[in-house]
């Protein structure tokens, strides 16, 4: 994967964690790291082309310390993302939107799922 594509995928992942909404009665504070491989199709170059970014489902690993929706995170979970450019994009220019999906094991033996929509500008 080209470095600009990797940066776009990592930016999406970082945004996903920062944008996790919290219910009004609970705080959400977690520090997370991600490990994932994203496919950028057809790739980025200086020739404007519509682009998609995907992990192909929840194939990545997310490791967090803290809580989400007021529940203590108890171990590593899964991460996946899909995004598309708004139109033709290059390695120097483009915008788009997507969704990140996180599944984290939380206290009480439950899995907490979070879906976050994001914009890339």
Explain what the structure shows.
The structure is a single chain. This protein has 1 helix and 8 strands. By secondary structure, it is mainly beta. It has one domain. Strand 7 and strand 8 form a beta hairpin. It starts with a helix and ends with a strand.
Write the layout of secondary structure elements.
Blueprint: H1 3-18, E1 29-35, E2 39-41, E3 52-54, E4 60-68, E5 71-72, E6 77-85, E7 96-106, E8 110-120
Antiparallel strand pairs: 1-4, 2-3, 3-6, 4-5, 4-6, 6-7, 7-8
Feature tags:
single chain, 121 residues, mainly beta, 8 strands, 13% helix, 45% strand, disordered N terminus
Q: Rough shape? A: elongated
Report the total helices.
1
Span from first to last CA?
Answer: 20 Å
Instruction: State mean pLDDT (0 to 100 scale).
Output: 82
Strand content: over 45%
Q: Pairing-aware structural class of the strands and helices?
A: mainly beta
Number of domains: 1
Q: Quick one: how many beta strands? A: 8
Helix content: 10-25%
Low-confidence stretches: 1-26
Largest sheet descriptor: 8 strands, antiparallel
Radius of gyration: 15 Å
Secondary-structure element series = HEEEEEEEE
In short:
The chain is mainly β and 121 residues long. 13% of the residues lie in helices and 45% in strands. The protein starts with a helix and ends with a strand.
């Amino acid at each position: 994967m080209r470095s600009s594509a990797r940066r776009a995928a990592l930016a999406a992942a970082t945004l996903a964690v920062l944008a996790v909404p919290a219910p009004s009665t609970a705080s959400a504070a977690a520090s997370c790291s991600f490990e994932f491989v994203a496919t950028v199709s057809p790739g980025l170059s200086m020739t404007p082309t519509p682009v998609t970014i995907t992990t192909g489902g929840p194939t990545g690993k997310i490791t967090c310390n803290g809580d989400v929706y007021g529940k203590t995170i108890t171990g590593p979970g899964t991460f996946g993302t899909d995004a598309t450019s708004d139109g033709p994009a290059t390695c120097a220019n483009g915008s788009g939107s997507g969704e990140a999906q996180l599944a984290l094991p939380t206290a009480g033996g439950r899995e907490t799922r979070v879906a976050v929509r994001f914009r890339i500008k």
